Amino acid sequence: MNLFDLTGKVAIVTGSSRGIGRAIAEAFAEAGAKVVISARNQGPCDEVVEAIEKKGGEAIAITCRISDKTQIENLVAKTRERWGGVDILVCNAAINPHYGPLEELTDQVFERMMTNNVLSNLWLAKLCVPDMKAKRDGAIIFISSTGGLKSSRVIAMYGITKSADIALCRSLAAEWGPHNIRVNCIAPGLIVTDFARALYEDPERRARREAATVLGRLGEPEEIAGAALLLASKAGSYITGHTLVIDGGTMVV
User: Fold this and answer.
1) Is-above-0.70 flag for pTM?
2) Other CB atoms within 10 A of residue 243 CB
3) Is 158 a catalytic residue?
4) Closest C-alpha to 86, from 65, 60, 51
5) Which of 64, 172, 177, 249 suits a disulfide with 183, CB 3.0-4.6 Å?
6) What is the C-alpha separation between 233 and 87, in angstroms, rounded?
7) For the chain, which domains are there?
8) Rg from Cα positions in the chain
9) Helices (H), 136-235
10) pLDDT tens digit string along 61-117?
11) Which residues are 188's β-sheet partners?
């Protein structure tokens, strides 16, 4: 038995046109899943679909702005129309427009970040869970962050939303566990993506981050994809309500 086989599974991965989301989507496709590539713009999504299909995988692109509940409903509805029920949901898409102290945070940005990074995850989970309940099987993964586990003077609001995702994960895991639906979080450290560029593009800042990491380097998107595959597959079938920290050892020193 291949513990990591996803053959026959249907997976939605938000924010999957690049970075961590793309790496997860490609890993799922290689494991046999039918994958929905979703982000705000059609072009980048189509590029990922093409790359997956060139390797023999199966994927479709459905654009979605996660702050818009109607678009989220459309994302799930179109997935069902094409492939039937959803087996795996990965909520990866997020925003971080505020870089600085909480003292300077506006109410509007607070509400926008909570909607995009937390409420959208709940919307998606609630829309997909009927399919999972019907099959008595399902996996939901929220991409959180080590920022949700520690303080920050520059990305504190982002950390607040990611801490909320961890709490949401635990509660949904408790609610839906009796239906054999697993809900987990992945909390990456600093990963080399365009989304996190502001945290590592300065050579001196990058050197400090690397020096503070046990493995002495920053992470790559593919290193998060492996953990997502674990949590989505038979290999992780007894894991729920858990937050898996993947940070190269930053949190242990």
Assistant:
1) yes
2) 18
3) yes
4) 60
5) 172
6) 10
7) 10-245 (3.40.50.720)
8) 17
9) 156-176, 203-211, 221-232
10) 999 999 999 999 999 999 999 999 999 999 999 999 998 999 999 999 999 999 999
11) 246
